[in-house]
Amino acid sequence: MIDEDIEGGHAVAVAGAQPPEPARADAQAPSRRLAPFGITLTAAAVLAACGGGGGGGGGGGLLGLGGSGSGSGTGTGTGSGSGTSAPAAGSLTPLAETPTAATYLYPEAKSDAEAARFLLQAQFSASPEEIAAVRAKGYLPWLGEQFDAPAGQRAWAWLETLPYATTSNTLDLDAMVWKQLITAPDALRQRVALAFSEIFVVSGNDIGSNWPVHMMAQYWDVLVAGATTNFRKLIEDITLNPAMGFYLNTKGNQKENASTGRQPDENYAREVMQLMTIGLVQLNADGSVKTDGAGKPLDSYTQDDVTNLARVFTGYDLDIKTAERNTVTPPGASYTIESNAWTQRPMALTASRHSTLAATFLGTAIPAGTPGDQALKTALDALVAHPNTAPFVSRQLIQRLVTSNPSPAYVKRVADVFANNGAGVRGDMKSVIAAILLDNEARSPAGLASADFGHVREPMVRFVQWARTCGVASAAGTWRIGNLSDPSSRLGQSPLRSPSVFNFYRPGYVPPSTAIAAKGMVAPEFQIVTETSVGGYINFLGGILQNGFNSKDVVAAYASEKALVLDPVALVDRLALLFTANQLSAATKALIVDALSEPAVTATSTDVVKLNRITAAVMLVMACPEYLVQK
């Protein structure tokens, strides 16, 4: 249904596209004679109109991680232990002993396409070297190796290398996060952090302080670290992070005052339940909704729960040490400000500002007079242990990484790993992520043929994939890409710039009057797909694939593509594998190759002509529905 709705509604708005006429062996389409980017735009419109249901991906092996097994290849098979030892996977090794892992039918890639498909779910891009590594090691050992590898330079540390003393304009929120997403060696952690940023939302659009970029960089670093930590630690780090304090009003939140009528701010108390842990309604272990006798969903919390929980989040503020105040003179200023050291520290508790009233919420009671740090521990422990949390968080992460409509069984298998990673640990996020990526629904070739499987690639994920695949670099090292949020002329999405705490789109969004809606399915990313954004995306690609950003300081090298420029078939084959895991149909590939045939490119052609062919090929791939729908 996701395929059908792209074909039937949104994508066909590109450039007034019309369905292509039947091919004739003796005919040449007039559009093939246009200038190179004219070719690209016209062919992109044709591709958008014709749509596709990609091929690729062979059948998986039938060896479960816990032993041998059998199954139908539809995500429902189970394995039975036969004494085969579990693969060595570093800190992920316990996962192989869980009941969930015993169901896995596809422990390794049998083809480059299968390896690429796995990589494009696990991170942003797939290089030939990474494909070879995944095939050689198997999925779980590769994941364990990635999660256990040392972290690269973090975002906050990178900001400190920039010449703030010369110009404060060097400090750029967008440059900070784009640089991390495009160049950080730990791409798996970065991909998970991007998914986290859409659940635990802090938007740089609404952050104010003397050091807003450093504050957002530290928040990003918290999310990256969260990919390999425990959910309990992650939610505490988020709760006490200064950026979250600014965004959802816990910074400076004070206890009640009867004489003035002041009450604790309830913003974070509400959102930490609604959006970050338990959700609005009660859930079964498989993520399905609990209902009353009349079929009405049961609320997961009440207003009284919000009011009581809000007391826990009082008394916290920025931890700025006295010796750090008035120590920095901003460029060109005659005044001084505090140093940026506080942006790396959690908010500090001032006991006199913390509510000492009793707090009862979600069946948990915090007695009156409980110290603030103990009250916070009790509250966060209760949220993490709540039966909703595992399926609620697991389902959203599945949606971000694999498919918009996971089956209840898929959600439960992942939620079970959230509850116990195989070593008795609840909320081990690297095991949860591994369980999402290793599940039969993620790995089975059956998903490739299903119109109901997969999700629309988010614009910022497409952008990072292009940048990593095609060798984008910043000569000056400043990464001035900018805010790409404008849907009419830019990408239509920028990381850490959500328009609200509800993310760019809601996880339960249903495109109205579509086949998706008729089947009772959801398609979250469609909430930001409009006629304007589709056209804007195509035009944006037309501008940046060759020219990059900041007067070509940030630009793609296309080194590997240049080596294939004289062979359009080989060039398209490379892009089809690395961008779509070979999910472009033969007809689509033939259409792209045909579009690249004019003008002819030879060894003596100019660099401009050669680059035109390369960027036309990239654009055609990135514009077609077989790419836009990730399976």
Question: What does this protein look like?
Answer:
The protein is mainly α. Helices cover 42% and strands 4% of the residues. The chain contains 27 helices and 11 strands. It has helices at residues 2-10, 36-50, 112-122, 128-137, 139-148, 155-159, 173-183, 187-197, 212-226, 231-239, 242-247, 267-274, 303-312, 372-385, 389-401, 408-419, 429-438, 440-443, 446-449, 459-469, 515-518, 531-547, 559-562, 568-580, 586-596, 607-623, 625-628, and strands at residues 63-64, 67-70, 78-79, 316-317, 348-349, 359-361, 364-366, 455-456, 472-474, 554-556, 629-630. Strands 1-2-3 form a 3-stranded antiparallel beta sheet, with no helix packed on it. Strand 6 and strand 7 (364-366) form a beta hairpin. Helix 2 runs parallel beside helix 26, helix 3 crosses helix 24 (568-580) and helix 16 runs antiparallel to helix 17. It is globular, with a radius of gyration of 25 Å. The chain starts with a helix and ends with a strand. Residues 6-83 have low confidence and may be disordered.
